[in-house]
Each structure stands twice: as C-alpha cells, then as structure tokens.
C-alpha cells in the first residue's frame, strides 16, 4: 500500500477481513471544547431520533439565547424550564447532575485531556445518568482518543458479527471473540469503530 496513507489505515488494513470495509481515509474529527456540554447533549439525545434530538437541543440552546451555556448557567436553570423543552424528569435530573459534578470537581477540558482513557471513564461514570458508552463517544469524538473500542455499541456488535461471521447467541463467548479481534486493531480501535459505523451506513 502507498506509504502516504494514514497510519491507522495502514495498520487496520493488515487485518484481511477488515480490509474489505476500508474505503479510504476517514473524515477528520472536529475539535470542540466544553466536554460538559457534549455530555449534556448526549443525555438529551438518548433514545431519540436524530431529527427529534436536534429539535430538542435547539430548544435547549434557545434557553440561553442560542449560545452554549456554562455549567453554572445549566445548574441554575430551574427543572421546570428544562422540562418545558421536552425533557423527561430523569433527563432533567441527569443534566443537572453533569453540571453540578463538573462544578464540584472543578473539571475542565484540560484536566480531562491529561487523564488516561480508563481514568476518564472512571471519573465521568460517577455521574448518575452517564454510562460507559456515553463517555466512550466523548473520548472518540471530542477528546480525540485513538484507541477506544465501543464494545457495548449495538451497531459495532452487529457489524463485527457480520464481518467475522460470529455467532452472537452465546453473549459471553461473542464478547470474548470481539475483544480478541479488536485487540489486533490497537492502537487505532477508535478508527476501526468509525469504519464499522460507516460500513453500516453504506
């Protein structure tokens, strides 16, 4: 293969099966700060279609005159105001949980960037309403970590099963095989996940 290809593409192409779904370099990830707001957006988007999620998040920003709020502003927003834009009681609670946790722990984008992957997961999953998958998405797309494998993502599971012809009926055995396969993709497992999602879309 030509040596001008990205390192991740060259590495992942060594897997003969995975090579079949690589269609070229991936698009660059957009660098965005304010990780707390990214978590809040992920909570708002949970269990919603993209179209509905965009509408609700637009209403959320409208509370703050269309600008991205600070965590202090979110924490000070009354629950009834957040409910009025279409959030459930649980989501309102989780949004406040994120804002209050970030304030209490004095967390910043800079502090998070200095943590390793497992430390980021351990830290942020302490927030009620924030699970491992949500933190993995944050690490992949906003912290730009290159070696995150979203083991619990349903589409990733389906695509790995399809590509490697795995039986998913025995969940424990399937997960062990997934991990073994994904270990070969390290240190570029984030990019492998992005190729798998892209393959599903195609």
TrEMBL record:
InterPro entries: Alkylbase_DNA_Glycosylase/TA, Alkylbase_DNA_glycsylse_CS, DNA_glycosylase, HhH-GPD_domain. It catalyses: Hydrolysis of alkylated DNA, releasing 3-methyladenine, 3-methylguanine, 7-methylguanine and 7-methyladenine. One of its GO terms (molecular function) is alkylated DNA binding. The keyword Transcription does not apply. CDD domains: ENDO3c. Transmembrane segments: none annotated. One of its GO terms (cellular component) is protein-DNA complex. It holds the Pfam family HhH-GPD. Its EC number is 3.2.2.21. It is an enzyme of class 3 (hydrolase). The keyword DNA damage applies. Keywords: DNA damage, DNA repair. Residues 44-201 form the HhH-GPD domain. Belongs to the alkylbase DNA glycosidase AlkA family. This is DNA-3-methyladenine glycosylase II. It comes from Chitinophaga solisilvae.
